[in-house]
């Protein structure tokens, strides 16, 4: 299975899909997940997979992963031909200057550009000292020499969407994944692989997979999706920020190669403590490594699901990803694999008696 999953992760990572423009990602998901059930898509670009084995008379387990990635949007073209842009989602700002980007113009063509900061050669002494900058002051340079050229030759206009130009790489020897948009495409991949391993299996729950849109701009897709699905219980897949390269070991809670991160809480949600206990016990009994985190910041779709439909117990299983919300991320294949193993085991063991006690 490993080779297939690498290809799946590659296609999802490379797909162009900032918030609101998830179409290409959904094409990849349809290609891989279409055989596991009936697919529907709504006009917010949420994609639903209703498992073929669903009977319609069981409680509903919703499995969610968001399909969008942090991106940018063209706001205006400057007189010198460079592009002023606004962020789609919360960027790690210092990762932007110097990054290569792709702009999709109205004709669907992908234009290469570079996020430009003022070259050091032209900086004043004071500017050289300062490290602070605003995204609004950055430019995307496509190599044009005038506003007319950017608009008429490159066909770039306000509203065009932008993602990093980053090509996925897999280091097979070390089991390491390098690419963009692992938040949350690695979660999408884990969800698809979970559907694959559950295929043909009888479960106590009807399973609806939701690949939700626009998470990075405020969990918007899932707000519509949860009303449509009406889940009784939910597991969210995530690509979540790894902290192991800059946190003291005693405080590190999301490290590479230690399995999926289950969060007790973040700024947006307290994950159902009884569900958390059951999930961590189940992982332990199954020999699946997990790590638990208490996060000060952050937010995720679980927060929306949790307080919907008369309260839905939810947990969030995150694949640790170094440097999310930047053009280049690192993740470990073993963490992806253990996230899938955990999700499969939870779906297998889950019964209404278990979830009624949450
Ligand atoms: Zn995410």
Task: Give structural notes.
α1 runs antiparallel to α5 and α5 (182-198) crosses α9 (333-349). It is built from 10 helices and 17 strands. It folds into 2 domains: 2-69 and 180-356, Aminopeptidase (3-Layer(aba) Sandwich), CATH 3.40.630; 72-164, Elongation Factor Tu (Ef-tu), domain 3, CATH 2.40.30. The model has no long low-confidence stretch (mean pLDDT 96). 47% of the residues are buried. Strands 1-2-12-3-13-16-14-15 form an 8-stranded mixed β-sheet, sandwiched between helices. Strands 5-4-9-6-7-8 form a 6-stranded antiparallel β-sheet. The longest helix has 17 residues, at 182-198. By secondary structure, it is α+β, with helices and mostly antiparallel strands. It has helices at 2-14, 23-33, 125-129, 147-153, 182-198, 221-229, 273-285, 301-306, 333-349, 352-356; strands at 37-41, 47-51, 60-66, 71-77, 83-88, 100-104, 110-116, 139-141, 161-164, 169-171, 176-179, 206-212, 233-241, 261-265, 291-294, 314-321, 329-332. It is globular. Zinc ion is lined by residues 66, 183-184, 215, 238-239.
């Amino acid at each position: 299975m490993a080779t297939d999953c690498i290809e799946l992760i590659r296609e999802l990572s490379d797909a162009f899909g900032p918030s609101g423009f998830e179409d290409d990602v959904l094409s990849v998901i349809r290609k891989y997940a279409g055989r596991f059930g009936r697919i529907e898509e709504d006009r917010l670009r949420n994609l639903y997979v209703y498992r073929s084995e669903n009977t319609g008379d069981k409680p509903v387990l919703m499995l969610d992963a968001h399909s969008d990635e942090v991106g940018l949007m063209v706001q205006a073209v400057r007189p010198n031909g460079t592009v002023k842009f606004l962020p789609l989602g919360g960027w790690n700002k210092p990762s932007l200057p110097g990054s290569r980007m792709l702009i999709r113009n109205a004709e669907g063509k992908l234009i290469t550009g570079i996020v430009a900061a003022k070259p050091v050669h032209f900086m004043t002494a004071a500017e050289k000292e300062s490290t602070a900058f605003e995204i609004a002051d950055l430019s995307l340079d496509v190599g044009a020499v005038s506003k007319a050229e950017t608009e008429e030759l490159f066909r770039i206009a306000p509203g065009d969407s932008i993602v990093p130009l980053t090509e996925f790489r897999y280091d097979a020897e070390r089991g390491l994944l390098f690419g963009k948009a692992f938040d949350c495409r690695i979660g999408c991949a884990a969800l698809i692989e979970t559907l694959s391993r559950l295929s043909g299996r009888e479960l106590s729950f009807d399973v609806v997979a939701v690949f939700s849109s626009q998470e990075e701009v405020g969990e918007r897709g899932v707000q519509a999706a949860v009303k449509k699905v009406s889940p009784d219980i939910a597991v969210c897949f995530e690509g979540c920020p790894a902290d192991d390269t800059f946190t003291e070991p005693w405080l590190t809670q999301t490290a590479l190669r230690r399995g999926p991160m289950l969060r007790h809480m973040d700024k947006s949600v307290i994950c159902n403590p009884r569900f958390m206990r059951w999930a961590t016990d189940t992982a332990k009994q199954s020999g699946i490594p997990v790590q638990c985190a208490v996060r000060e910041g952050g937010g995720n779709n679980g927060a929306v699901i949790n307080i919907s439909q008369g309260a839905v117990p939810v947990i969030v299983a995150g694949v640790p990803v170094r440097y999310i919300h930047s053009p280049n991320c690192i993740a470990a294949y073993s963490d992806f694999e253990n996230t899938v193993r955990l999700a499969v085991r939870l779906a297998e063991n889950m019964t209404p008696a278990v979830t009624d006690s949450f």
